[in-house]
Amino acid sequence: MLAVVVGAGGGIGGACARQLAGQYATVLCVDRDLGAAERTATAIGTNALALAADAGDAGFGRLVGARAAELGPVGCAVYAVAYEEHTPAVELTRESLMLSLTVGPVGAFEFFRGLTPAEGASYVAIGSLHEKQPFANCLGYNAAHGALGQVVRTLAHEWADRGIRVNAVVPGWIMTPGEEELYGAEELATAGRLLPLGRHGRPEEIAAAVGFLASEAAGYISGSFLTVDGALSTSLARLRGV
């Protein structure tokens, strides 16, 4: 059976692809950066293939769906890409907002809809605490994840009679190469010590949650949001200075 991971060239997506390689016969690693997808596939071994596809393109869902159909029915599909720009809302461009929505909820929907599912298929979107928390200077990303949450809920509702389970894994602050590039090692080390568990999460911890949702043990779980954030979301209500 086949697993398909979009964003497999990234930290979380790559970890998900490696996790699912132990659960499925074949893993299709999809990323807009073919080299990154190939590196993940090579690290997995002979049961992994790479595909270049950009979630921002109009034909994205059809392209991935067609390639996946050549390999067999999909037992697990993971969508692990998003577009995020940090800028005050008053300065946010329409183009940036639309890109967040296109790469986020629209891309996820088109990806899931384009697949040929196996019986009992598990579809998982990598969500964000931004779905419910209106972090400043992230309007596009906030809006995109709010919409992605409704995509997950709606598909779980509509596709239940097809035996397809649709869920989300919601990470906290995860240590990935992208975060290191954005913030720098020193700033991340300082921030990590201030998190509730005293450290950032690891991509493998998100992948383990995805693996669980893909397993028989999660066979009655659909429409759920599995939060893997080290208690970060429950700590956000703390008032500054208190």
TrEMBL record:
Keywords: Oxidoreductase. SUPFAM superfamilies: NAD(P)-binding Rossmann-fold domains (SSF51735). GO terms for molecular function: oxidoreductase activity. It comes from the Bacteria. InterPro entries: NAD(P)-bd_dom_sf, SDR_DHRS6-like, SDR_fam. Belongs to the short-chain dehydrogenases/reductases (SDR) family. This is SDR family oxidoreductase. It comes from Kribbella antibiotica.
